[in-house]
Amino acid sequence: MIVVMERDATEEQIQKVVSRLEREGFQVHLSRGVTRTIIGAVGDKGHLQRESLEAMEGVEKVVPVLRPYKLAAREFRPENTVVRLRQGVEIGGEAIQVIAGPCAVESFEQLLVTAEAVKASGATILRGGAFKPRTSPYSFQGLEEEGLRLLAQARAATGLPVVTEVMDPRSVPLVAEYADVLQVGARNMQNFYLLREVGAAKKPVLLKRGPSATIEEWMLAAEYIMSAGNDQIILCERGIRTFENATRNTLDLSAVPLVKSLSHLPVFVDPSHGTGRWELVTPMALAAVAAGADGVMIEVHPNPDEALSDGPQSLKPDKFAQLMRQLTRVATAVGRTLGQIAVCSA
Amino acid sequence: MIVVMERDATEEQIQKVVSRLEREGFQVHLSRGVTRTIIGAVGDKGHLQRESLEAMEGVEKVVPVLRPYKLAAREFRPENTVVRLRQGVEIGGEAIQVIAGPCAVESFEQLLVTAEAVKASGATILRGGAFKPRTSPYSFQGLEEEGLRLLAQARAATGLPVVTEVMDPRSVPLVAEYADVLQVGARNMQNFYLLREVGAAKKPVLLKRGPSATIEEWMLAAEYIMSAGNDQIILCERGIRTFENATRNTLDLSAVPLVKSLSHLPVFVDPSHGTGRWELVTPMALAAVAAGADGVMIEVHPNPDEALSDGPQSLKPDKFAQLMRQLTRVATAVGRTLGQIAVCSA
Amino acid sequence: MIVVMERDATEEQIQKVVSRLEREGFQVHLSRGVTRTIIGAVGDKGHLQRESLEAMEGVEKVVPVLRPYKLAAREFRPENTVVRLRQGVEIGGEAIQVIAGPCAVESFEQLLVTAEAVKASGATILRGGAFKPRTSPYSFQGLEEEGLRLLAQARAATGLPVVTEVMDPRSVPLVAEYADVLQVGARNMQNFYLLREVGAAKKPVLLKRGPSATIEEWMLAAEYIMSAGNDQIILCERGIRTFENATRNTLDLSAVPLVKSLSHLPVFVDPSHGTGRWELVTPMALAAVAAGADGVMIEVHPNPDEALSDGPQSLKPDKFAQLMRQLTRVATAVGRTLGQIAVCSA
Amino acid sequence: MIVVMERDATEEQIQKVVSRLEREGFQVHLSRGVTRTIIGAVGDKGHLQRESLEAMEGVEKVVPVLRPYKLAAREFRPENTVVRLRQGVEIGGEAIQVIAGPCAVESFEQLLVTAEAVKASGATILRGGAFKPRTSPYSFQGLEEEGLRLLAQARAATGLPVVTEVMDPRSVPLVAEYADVLQVGARNMQNFYLLREVGAAKKPVLLKRGPSATIEEWMLAAEYIMSAGNDQIILCERGIRTFENATRNTLDLSAVPLVKSLSHLPVFVDPSHGTGRWELVTPMALAAVAAGADGVMIEVHPNPDEALSDGPQSLKPDKFAQLMRQLTRVATAVGRTLGQIAVCSA
Fold first, then answer.
1. Chain-centroid distance, C-alpha C264
2. What is the CATH architecture of C83-338?
3. Three-state secondary-structure class, residue B288
4. How much is the ipTM here?
5. Which of A102, D6, D198, D220 has the lowest CB atom count within 10 Å?
């Protein structure tokens, strides 16, 4: 930790900061310049809050030296984390996996038609929302437990592992009973009670980045889950909120290589929510893989203009099939392959 | 609802949209221009999702005409909502109320000293966090139920009603047992299960604006609570996340007069979180009242540099006393008064 | 300057940074922690670019200690700068000054009617655009030199000093011939050739904050003007661009007290551009003064729905008169007065 | 244009809007709903400003139907614009072109070494700044005309066409004398006098997107240049300003396919400024091409830690060579090739 004192900090204020740091077990180095004194505090305590120092008189700013997360950091675990699902689907390895399916589960037919179509095109994981976070209380909120049952049936029929969102800490055991991967949605990235519950569950977690979360906050959300005992985490960039409203969100693809260097966890990209427009989904899925993503998550609906949620950003099955063909070529260009589902399925 | 068709939309696509709208019960008006056709749909159905139309072929954009919230809208309830707390404290009336206290409850002594000081300066409501939403799992998370008990003791000693945050839907009944006002924090503004639980509770709710929430999303969060049966809501602007990082957040004071015109609910401002720097708290509290806020929420700590949370933005009791003197003058200048606690307290 | 080395920086990399710093004349202090080495560099050289260090191998980040601006900084000139205009109008002193007038000069009649009305209500400076920065090449671009002449006539008729925008470095001498204050618009805050030209002019400059400029960048823009020899600068906050689009911009009022502490220059607020909606102009003008602004800049038009520019954010003269009455009360509440124009005018 | 009237708009207010629209030559359609009246105005006048209607009493909002730009719009020119430079370099065709070189021209040796290296790796255009827009007046501002001469010498030696920034409207003729492509930098995207001057020049223009410019504003900046008579424009996405500061800017790659659909102009991406970190340049360059960009612009410096500008985001020549090998593979994967310089060079 580095403490920069104000220009007119008194000797007494400087000494008060030094004593405080020493009392907390830091080794202290003082650099006195002509206009300012800088206090370097070496040691890895973590007890002392940065903000507690910033509140001291005479302190201009405090600059942390160490990153505030550990379990999620690559410097503490250099090798990639690989999350293993049924049917031999491995996330975070050499192969790129594609999650596809409807935004919301609407009926068994809608789900099964979509699941079979995306499987035929090469998707290895099925998505579908049973509990839907909706901005308006008057929008369709999902089929809830019935939706989970339909997902399990679609998995039985196709062999595809399923990912679905859990929003309420109380529902984690129920959702974990049905799902292969628990999704924590963007709006819940800092729902700390939910993070602790999925941390306690013995299921992989797909952790979406919050729409206004910095990368550091996202890593700390992963740290919550890991510190609760679960390190089967897949990070998913899905766009951040900016001034630009020509797209639903601004997909921050630079986050992909950056997070891959900061963390050992696999990183996915959701270009459907990231752009909100189906015409942009394919180019941004290709870009995500070119940037180093471990997979993409794509909304597919057999009939987008009848979809109960997110129609404008859903691909029809034939467009999705095209996407997969192009994705295979881009994956090869960057030295990767597309994942495959084990043959003896269902 | 207005549907703008693409330049090259076919007659068939136009008719498909018209039929869909008519099927849903809208009255439809067509305007055919040289380059584009516009479809006006009159009626207040709400069943048909805007996005479902946007997913239809040939549709360029859909412009909603009605606001998506009702219960929270001033056009459906013109008179101001007044939230009444114990000791005659009324929020949303002519008097401005000041909530003050420490960010986190740390001990009975810290809380009581602060409560007595802020009461002496004119605050009418005590704040203090028992459950703390913290970005890092390694930061102090609050005294939890013990913190709630201390708040109740401080209320018994001073007569001040108390507001405290609830983060977990499961804790709503517990927190409601102790608190006079349930606070929904900024990071939980779209925690829809929590909104429904506080909607079901029979206690006033202080609903903070999310750091990246638009005003419309904030109104819809209030609508969630109201549609669950609770209309005792106090809105609280606490800064939004922008590119500027000289302050912790960017306090959006324009939201105050704007929300007062859109909604009948009272609006507070939290300049402590809104700026993150104690030197800016007083000027921004004055500005909030000048802009028309019904009250402010201020962090006060007897010893900010030992605070377990938010020290840099906490005022010492003497600075808070000064703030209150200035606030009284500004309130008078805009034709309001400062609220008072009823004499026969506790 | 503080250099934080990467976790696995080699001894050679550390020494290379140390040598570089010493070669540039810095005094260097090394702090070796368990996981990282920190290099403190004391001295005020300014020659060495921070980014040049950041490009060195093994360097994780460089934290500047000193602010990058001097002439504009309060720490180098503690007393307030006061800008003096004709008719005894002083900006940055105890009195609050109000600039008012139409967005664009449209005709002599429109300008004179407005000028007389705002003067009658207490405004002390007249605004009016002759050169208009317009997003579209097809929008009205201003009356240009004819507009300048009309401003001079309105000044002759009312005695009000005038402020008008200059956009092109080549027009600075022309505009300086007519105007009392040269306005640098938000979109030109980093038009460095324009900054140098207005720096060379012997006229006060009103420097608007860019819509995506940090406070530090704004101070550096002032530094450009000051380093070219002109220290008669008035800063003007006019809203920043954020995700919120319920208002045209997000007026960042926290910038007012913050900049007043960082700099000795006077600070104005433009709530007309800051909000884009006339209903919000009065509350935000009051808030600006409560927050410590030295003045406000208000768009007034006798007939907003016929205005050639910015009608929706312009006040009618009667609303402006009301604003001025309220502003007087708020100014008094914060210990200030409203400026007056010297009697023997014109 | 669609005008949505307020809920309580009077019949007189409605009629006033209708008359105004009819007076301007629009055909008007009225839709009266239970709570609101909507006025559709058909016709393509452009005279009537949207804001002028928004200022009328009783008007809630005005929704434009047509896009505000024409010359730059694909709907008015369906086929791709191809910009042709010397040596057979074509921008916007099937081949992807790579612009590379140092941020700033520092010396002939530095420039020539870089130019030869990037040419050897496959770059077809040389970049180098002679006039540098710098946030601080104390930073290196470029070699100015001497820098232009060095660029011309490097072109003579290598055959590579050169692109360099012009910042001052007065310098356009000078820069146009030396450069093959005039760059308008991000901070000058709305410097309208500069746009008109480069519009009048007979040289291709590389128009960078402003850090807080919407896509529509960017298109309108291109419209300024085109309406001044120059349609040889290359658009260049270089990152927008958001709350995330782990990267220098947030590279908005979704803008690439979006702008390609809205406009016929070629689109480049600058991942060096877009990320500010050299480690992210290669993955984001690959992503840009996968997303459909017509080329990328890369900062290369033989010795980044001695660079006078932008060292941290500059690649060394060997890293650039690697990038080019990977880029070739990704270009092939999306059905494109890398451009080549004609053999008989210089």
1. 13
2. Alpha-Beta Barrel (3.20)
3. helix
4. 0.94
5. D6
